[in-house]
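Service request form, structural biology core

Requester: graduate student, group of Dr. S.
Request type: structure prediction, single chain
Budget code: on file
Notes: please return the result as structure tokens.

Sequence provided:
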Amino acid sequence: MRRGRSPGGGSGRLSRPAGRGGRAPRAVLGSAVAALAVALAGCAETGAPSGEDAAARSAAVDSGPASDPGAGIVLEDTAGRTLRLDAPPSRIVSLVPAATAMLLALDARAALVGRTDFDTLAAVRNLPSVGDGLQPDLEHLLALRPELVIRFEGPQDAITGPALDALGIPHLGVRTDRVADVRALLLQLGWLTGREGRAMELVAGLDRELAAVQARVKTLPPVRVAYLLGGDPPWVAGPDSYLADLLVIAGAENVFDDLEQPYAPVGLEELLVRAPDVVLVARGTAVSERIRARARVRELSPAIEVPGIGLGRSALELAELLHAEGFAR
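Core staff response, request fulfilled:
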């Protein structure tokens, strides 16, 4: 019997809050999107896990499944629900683009039969879409005859889980609030698809990438930064999120690390009073001209806003941007 506990996070790329200077929010998630305004509200309501909590969840998954393969698969998702399957599912609909990318990395593409509008990777572009990741089109989803649906767990979507229960469709609720949650979800999806070995390889690779970046910046002075997600007033990354984890790994000091929430709106004057050396944004983020005129804004690949298998590359890009001289040596 394979047993494991899921991580506590599972959103994907964060889209911008609504407002002048920000993209309109989408009630979607995934490697892709969970409307930031929606996702942020969820963090505020449920509370992002502490580093200790995320590590505990990761350790629970790392402990591995039980060793009786004939008893099927038993997993506990982030809401504490128990998922039981007789065998690895051969028809999976992923409502979480970050999880979709993980399944591709696990060489489980053949099991995917459905995606969201925000799954734009070439490998799944020809799959039928069920619409948004939050509150998908259940009629289209049902027509795909899924043996498993991977969905976002949180108050942002209180409808999909119960609806799937009523339809008798197994589903796994996930979140990826912290870096530890990303590695834990990789392991869990490996168990679900019968690809535990490949999952362990991917996690080991991610761990090596992150450790290598942290080692490179260990002796370099930290750079004071603010990570801006767009919007007017602008939303910033605070503590207790995978973005906060990446900033620490890359040798940055988050000037908003004292916020009470992982993400929150702040006024322009508050941003300037914090005096960050650099204001970080993903390419394509609409940034107020008032901010650009008074702060040093640097752009990163939008991949940094996808809490998935590319976090090692994002950490390296971030460290190279912040510590160009140190990396040039």
